[in-house]
Design brief:
Oligomer: single chain
Largest sheet: none
Radius of gyration: 24 Å
Order of helices and strands: HHHHHHHHHHHHH
Number of helices: 13
Strand content: under 5%
Helix content: 55-70%
Shape: elongated
């Protein structure tokens, strides 16, 4: 069955013949204003439909509406960004990359565009391309644009770790911890570097355990003046529209254990550090091959 065009484009198509029939300078001016108005309405109709479909995780439907919106406003940054995210969710990394690259062509200072590209090109997913040199370039640019965002910092540490630049990796992880002491990823990966260098493990594990602590539920209702200790708030969840971290899998094991209320044991941390060592070798091989597995 032939797919019907989105309603927003039908609206624009129906208005065309009417506008074409106008004559005279005044009529043409009125026609141009009407055409612009209908174009704007059609664009927002498409964009709103895309947002609604994306919120339901209907990514193919959302992508169609984003594409229709971008036919009307090709340089719309939200449209390009979310089209890329939908394409990535649909398992179309090259199409996602094209959308993100178009975004930074439109706006070279789009931190989220550079971060999305860096995350895509430094992904553990074997179906996605791995290009750590290009990923690092975009992640550094994202960090330059928005130095308060810790996402690029963790990912830059991961890239340096896979590249064997351990001192630099440690600097990135420590920087992330200074910005957010509850960053389990940073504490865990910084600890891994110390463990790999045969340092005393007890303080390294203790640091991971402290970062991974989840705040106990507050009993009763907070009054207006009550506050929670910011140091006891759990780090943000690992799940992200930017995809998985290179070493997100072992970190996820620790997060799941903490979320369940089960203490993080020394043995568990050591086991997951060994998993990092295995993953590091796999990423090194994949990065060297220059292509997905």
């Amino acid at each position: 069955m032939k797919r019907r065009p989105p309603p927003c484009l039908l609206m624009l198509a129906l208005c065309g013949p009417v506008l074409a029939g106008c004559r005279g300078p005044a009529a043409e001016a009125v026609g141009a204003r009407d055409q612009l108005r209908h174009r704007v309405l059609a664009f927002w109709n498409c964009l709103n439909r895309a947002t609604e479909a994306r919120s339901r995780r209907h990514f193919a439907e959302a992508a169609r509406h984003y594409e229709a919106a971008l036919l009307l406003e090709p340089a719309h940054e939200d449209g390009l960004y979310y089209l890329g995210q939908c394409r990535r969710e649909m398992g179309q990394p090259e199409a996602a990359r094209a959308a993100f690259e178009r975004l930074i062509e439109v706006n070279a200072t789009s931190a989220r565009g550079h971060l999305a590209l860096g995350a895509l090109l430094a992904s553990p997913d074997p179906s996605e391309p791995m290009d750590l040199a290009t990923a690092e370039r975009h992640l550094r640019r994202a960090h330059e644009i928005n130095g308060e965002e810790t996402g690029p910092v963790i990912r830059l540490g991961e890239v340096a770790l896979v590249a064997g630049r351990f001192a630099e990796a440690r600097e990135w992880f420590e920087s992330a911890l200074r910005a957010n002491p509850k960053s389990v990823e940073a504490a865990f990966l910084a600890g891994y570097l110390g463990w790999d260098e045969s340092r005393e493990t007890a303080p390294l594990v203790r640091r991971v355990r402290e970062a991974g602590k989840v705040e106990a539920p507050v009993k009763g209702v907070l009054s207006e003046g009550d506050r929670r200790d910011s140091q006891r708030v759990a780090a943000p969840p690992l799940s992200s529209p930017l995809g998985r971290l290179l070493f997100g899998e072992p970190v996820g094991v620790l997060r799941a254990r903490a979320a369940s209320g089960t203490p993080i044991s020394d043995a568990l941390v050591l086991e997951e550090w060994r998993a990092v060592r295995r993953l590091r070798r796999e990423h090194e091989r994949r990065a060297a091959s220059g292509r997905p597995d």
